Amino acid sequence: MTLDYESAILNVSLLWMLTVPHEFAHAWTAVKLGDDTPAREGRVTLHPLAHVDWLGTVILPGLLSLFSGGFLGWGKPVNTNPYNLRGGNRGLALVALAGPASNILFAVILAAITVALMRVAPEYAAFPARGVYLSLFLAMFNMIPVPPLDGSKLLLLARAPTAIYYELARAGFLILLVLITATPLGRWLSATSYLGAHFLLSLFR
User: Fold this and answer.
1) For residue 111, which of 93, 134, 81, 141 has the smallest C-alpha distance?
2) Angle between helices 126-141 and 89-120 (to 10 degrees)
3) Which residues contact 159 (CB under 8 A, 6 or more apart)?
4) pTM (2 d.p.)
């Protein structure tokens, strides 16, 4: 078995970098909608250590990249109190969508940086180029409607039975692991992310 150390280091570094604006966006949106929980817990910040989940941001994605070439990861969830949010479940959905939206915005920024580096210092362009792909992957991955991912909050907006939501939450990690490693979903997310990255890069060329 060949261990892909380079891919593991690259993926973990990028995931940590991309997790920061993602979780910050959740926290900032929640505060703007009236919930000060993220502020009280120190999450309205761009400091990387505030948003790292050592299992989800470092250990698991590192091991998957090292041994299988797969990818699965997350940051430290931002706690919110839905009863404090203006709009109730609509507010909760906006907080949830803010994370993936930040990933798409960051992918656009990284695409511009990649193209600029390809013109002046092409040897450094691979890192942000990988970031474009990974940022789009994270945006789509987080929209899977399985707790604790952001997309699951849309189930609450759609008034899915609370009992079903909490049953999904109990097995959420296992469900996600099976979906990514044992179904075509992981390959589809990867292929779609590469197509999206190619499209963004072509916009700036």
Assistant:
1) 134
2) 160
3) 89
4) 0.89
CA distance linking residue 99 with residue 182, whole number of Å: 26
Q: Please enumerate in sequence order all residues whose Cβ is within 8 A of that of 90, keeping only pairs 6 or more positions apart, or say none.
A: 157
Name, in order, each residue with C-beta under 8 angstroms of 36's C-beta and a sequence gap of 6 or more.
Answer: 84
Task: Report the distance separating Cα 109 and Cα 132, nearest Å.
Answer: 8
Residue owning tokens 């803010």: 98
Give me the DSSP letters along 51-113.
Answer: T--IIIIIIHHHHHHHHTS------PPPP--GGGSTTTHHHHHHHHHHHHHHHHHHHHHHHHH
pLDDT tens sequence for the chain (205 residues): 677 788 888 888 999 999 999 999 999 999 999 999 999 999 999 999 999 999 889 998 888 888 876 677 888 999 999 899 999 889 999 999 999 999 999 999 999 999 999 999 999 999 999 999 999 999 999 999 998 899 999 888 888 888 888 888 899 889 988 888 889 998 999 999 999 999 999 999 8
Taking a C-beta distance cutoff of 8 angstroms, is the pair 65, 4 a contact? yes
